[in-house]
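The methods section describes the discrete structure representation at length, but only in general terms. What matters is that the chain and its backbone geometry are given together, residue for residue. Nothing conveys this as quickly as seeing an actual entry. For illustration, here is how one protein appears when written out as sequence plus structure tokens:
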Amino acid sequence: MVFYDGGANCAVGAMVVREWITALGDFFMLLQRACVAAVVDRPRPRVLLDQLYEIGVRSLSIVNLTAVFTGMVMALQLGHFLSKFGAKIFVSRVVGLAIISELGPVLTALMIGGRVGAGMAAELGTMKVTEQIDAMRALGTDPISYLVLPRLAAIAIMLPLLTGMADVVALIGGSFVAYGELGVSPNFYFTSLLQFLTLGDIARSLTKGAVFALIIGGIACQNGMAASGGADGVGRATTRTVVSASISILIADFFLTKLMLVL
């Protein structure tokens, strides 16, 4: 006979909620300390350039590959659906809205979160468990200013740019499928798209990219700086970063979309 222990389940639930609230508080505290460090001590140019290269240039291949096939499959699916109603000429508008409003910023952020976020957490976690961060504090160097701030600044700069590039690449990929499968010429494809899109749509896409950048960078740095327990602790921090960042991006996307539709 199995007995239902409601008290134990409530205790576990309360513990999970408390951990989430604590993690959220640590996340915003880290962002606040980074903002203060940005005012007091600007990021070192050399460190910032290294992070811009690592986050931006080295992520071009995965972002472009994800974007082009996303645009192609969206054009293929939506084009055949619209052709049933004789509306295949509007495929660029539907694909463009889906890509720029949602898929472009979200998929780019998920790819960057998996690649860059995991790398940040592993790098900082390794420095934490090997006591390099404690040594920096002993020498009078602020780890937030030297380690966290350049990473947050770099991802905040590069992710909106990567999002904009992913939007363009996805639309170009969709134009190839629209021409090859539906007979919609590239000239008409882009002309119809530009007549439909507004600067507000592009601004919303880039704004989402900037917000997702802070989420990814903050979670990665927070988990990396809190790692403990040797190599196993670094692995846990890396896994926790990827999972937490992915879930947070999807949750934030819903609330951002809701807010932007109201404004």
Remarks:
- The chain has a mean pLDDT of 90.
- The chain has one domain: 6-262.
- Residues 6-262 form one domain.
